[in-house]
């Protein structure tokens, strides 16, 4: 069950947070209010997820909402967006947002902390991919 909506949550997802990333999200939420992530793809820091105050990064038709993450201790969900072109390349990949030492070059909120968010990935299993493809078909 989702603690925010009370709805049943599918056991399969495209994205997750490590415990370290969830702790950092809670700290950033305390300082900056509601948050969002955007993953643009590309090289260098463009391949790192960027965390912004909710609404500071404008999304549109060229972006896909991968998930609205329920983070313990954060009162609202945290949207995770990806550029649609990047999503087409990564649609069969499970992403885990982690935190590593070092400072990124973007405007992501964690930069002053001396850490940066990082994506770790693995291919979805065939069963996971089938479930998510059915969910995508139902959303479209």
TrEMBL record:
<protein>
    <submittedName>
        <fullName>DUF779 domain-containing protein</fullName>
    </submittedName>
</protein>
<dbReference type="Pfam" id="PF05610">
    <property type="entry name" value="DUF779"/>
</dbReference>
<dbReference type="InterPro" id="IPR008497">
    <property type="entry name" value="DUF779"/>
</dbReference>
């Amino acid at each position: 069950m989702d603690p925010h909506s009370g709805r049943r949550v599918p056991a399969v997802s495209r994205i997750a947070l490590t415990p370290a990333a969830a702790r950092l999200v809670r700290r950033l939420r305390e300082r900056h209010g509601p948050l969002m992530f955007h993953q643009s793809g590309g090289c260098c820091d463009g391949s790192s997820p960027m965390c912004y105050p909710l609404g500071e990064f404008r999304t549109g038709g060229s972006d896909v909402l991968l998930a609205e993450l329920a983070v313990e201790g954060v009162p609202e969900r945290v949207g995770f967006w990806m550029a649609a072109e990047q999503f087409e390349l990564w649609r069969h990949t499970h992403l885990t947002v982690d935190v590593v030492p070092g400072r990124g070059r973007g405007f992501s909120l964690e930069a002053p902390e001396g850490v940066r968010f990082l994506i770790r990935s693995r291919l979805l299993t065939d069963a996971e991919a089938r479930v998510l493809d059915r969910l995508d078909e139902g959303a479209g």
